[in-house]
Amino acid sequence: MGMSVPKSCFGYPLSIFFIVVNEFCERFSYYGMRALLILYFQRFLGWNDNLGTAIYHTFVALCYLTPILGALIADSWLGKFKTIVSLSIVYTIGQVVIAVSSINDLTDFNHDGTPDSISVHVALSMIGLVLIALGTGGIKPCVSAFGGDQFEEGQEKQRNRFFSIFYLAINAGSLLSTIITPMLRVQVCGIHSKQACYPLAFGVPAALMAVSLIVFVIGSGMYKKVQPQGNIMSKVARCIGFAIKNRIRHRSKKFPKREHWLDWASEKYDDRLISQIKMVTRVMFLYIPLPMFWALFDQQGSRWTLQATTMSGKIGIIEIQPDQMQTVNAILIVIMVPIVDAVVYPLIAKCGLNFTSLKKMTVGMFLASMAFVAAAIVQVEIDKTLPVFPKGNEVQIKVLNIGDSNMTVSFPGTTETYNQMSQPKDFMTFNVDNLSINISSTGSPVTPVTHNFESGHRHTLLVWAPSNYQVVKDGLNQKPEKGRNGIRFVNAFGESFNVTMDGEVYNNVSSHNASEYLFFSSGVKSFTINSPEIPQQCGKEFKTSYLGFGSAFTYVITRKSDGCPEAKAFEDISPNTVSMALQIPQYFLLTCGEVVFSVTGLEFSYSQAPSNMKSVLQAGWLLTVAVGNIIVLIVAGAGQFSEQWAEYVLFAALLLVVCVIFAIMARFYTYINPAEVEAQFDKDDKEDYLEKSNPYAKLDSVSQTQM
Question: Which CATH class is domain 289-385+578-685?
Answer without folding.
Answer: mainly alpha
